[in-house]
Amino acid sequence: MSTSLTSKKPPIYAVLSDAAVERHARMTAEGVYNLAAFEVFWQQRQQYLEEAGYLLRPRYRLDWRPSWIGTNLSPRYCEDSILPMGYQVMDATCIATNELVAIKSFTNDTEELQIAQFFSTIKDPMNHCVPIHQILPDPFDHEKALMVMPYLRPCNDPDWTTLGDVVDFVTQTLEGLTFMHRHRVAHCDIATPNIMMDARPLYPDGHHPVRLNFAPDGMHRVTPLPRAGRLIRYFYIDFGLALQFQPGVTPTALGRVGRDREVPELSDTVPYDPFKVDIFALGNLYSQEFEKKYDSMEFLIPLIELMTRREPTQRADAEQLLLKWEEIRRDLNKSTFRWRLAPKGEPAIERVLNDTVAVAWHGINHLKNLVG
């Protein structure tokens, strides 16, 4: 965290009145801010993880005492009141590098682990599968393990703002899909929540791992830099439903699984090709996130059409789609990549105003880059 950030005074919204201080003191004493049951799981492993080189937030230390006690600060804006996003994944800091990581608890000896580790061994610029830093045995449950991965942020938070952002996202996700399919792995659960990004270039001073729009202190709001001109890398995560097939084996699957419920061939009784399901799901993602939301997305329509045909055998495969996309991208005018994404139905007067603001911000950020 930068010096300027740590020296900031608490914002007015984080400071309580005397009556509110008394009320929150009673709530604290009554256990309102105590660890939830699923958090105790991580508190029990805090010392083990620290010895392994990973530091959990202060809330999970055995000697934790709420930092707001004896102050006029709202617990809501104190970092150690913030719960994790879910029970299965915990954020931590790698002691050696001071970088955020995510630690996932899972049942060991699963296909998810085997596939994730398999992809982590392959050095390829088209590999957009989340890398695995380390697998730690669970100190209390021999049937579980702790998977350490880089900390990643949702791919659409902050939202895409320029046409170039869309082009970069489509390029990387198609590369990643082609890479997986070349290695005979079908993800089987492609959806926006399962594609994340390394957003560090957007937040040079960092952000809180749970309260995403706040600084690491959880108190001060932060504004991201634009994606344009910065290297943002996207990753597929969560291989819990993934299937790997040996060469020569016909790929088939059963079950109505995955987040995308619009895939037409999903069935509990009729086998289907999971690679074609991946194709449909990614094409549907492009449709929902871009083509249906923003104007000037006509260039995506031929690609989406090839990916979302109702008859699976009529869909292009990943290799063909990547070639088609490279052809589409070559025909795009690069000067349009800085264009602001305009929501469909945006009133004309709003569009003029928003375009003007976008141009001004682009100029400011370009100037900042020039002066360092």
Could you please describe the fold and organization of this structure?
It is a single chain. With 372 residues, the chain is of the alpha+beta class. It is built from 10 helices and 10 strands. The strands form 3 sheets. It has a 5-stranded antiparallel β-sheet with strand order 1-2-3-5-4. Strands 6-8-9 form a 3-stranded antiparallel β-sheet. Strands 7-10 form a two-stranded antiparallel ribbon. A hairpin with a 5-residue loop joins strand 2 and strand 3. Helix 6 runs antiparallel to helix 7, helix 6 runs antiparallel to helix 9 and helix 7 runs antiparallel to helix 8. The N terminus is likely disordered.
Structural class: alpha+beta
SSE pattern? HHHHEEEHEEEHEEEEHHHH
Number of helices: 10
Roughly what percent helix? Answer: 25-40%
Question: Which spans have pLDDT < 50 for at least 5 consecutive residues?
Answer: 1-6
Mean residue pLDDT: 92
Number of DSSP-assigned strands: 10
Radius of gyration: 23 Å
- Measured between the Cα atoms of the first and last residue, the distance is 18 Å
Largest beta sheet, briefly?
Answer: 5 strands, antiparallel
Beta-strand percent range:
5-15%
In order across it, which strands form the biggest sheet? 1-2-3-5-4
Tertiary shape: globular
